[in-house]
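Lab notebook, bench 4. Continuing the backlog of folding jobs that were queued last week. Each job is logged with the same field layout so the records can be merged later without manual cleanup. Today's entry covers ATP-dependent Clp protease adaptor ClpS, a 91-residue chain. Filled in by technician R.K.

JOB TYPE: sequence-to-structure
TARGET: ATP-dependent Clp protease adaptor ClpS
LENGTH: 91
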Amino acid sequence: MGTKEQISPELLLEEEVLKQNEIILFNDDVNTFDHVIDTLIYACDHTPEQAEQCSIIVHYKGKCTVKTGSYDDLKPRCSMLLEAGLSAEIA
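JOB STATUS: finished
OUTPUT FIELD FOLLOWS
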């Protein structure tokens, strides 16, 4: 005797997609590693290790995403980076 498997319809949930923006830091020939590291710690709440890793990536790759989040959170952080003489943008 065969049994009939009961299949219940799947529920499709609509998720709100939050747009995540990024601060991208660009390499330059002006700022020292120490200045970049200190600024990332201050402006982006990085740990010293995170800031050092980002500064190395920027140096060798030319750019690095240093912070991800909402535009409202990133705008003042990006402004702090720019005011410190770093080259950064929100994408």
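OBSERVATION: The longest strand covers residues 63-69.
SIGNED: R.K.
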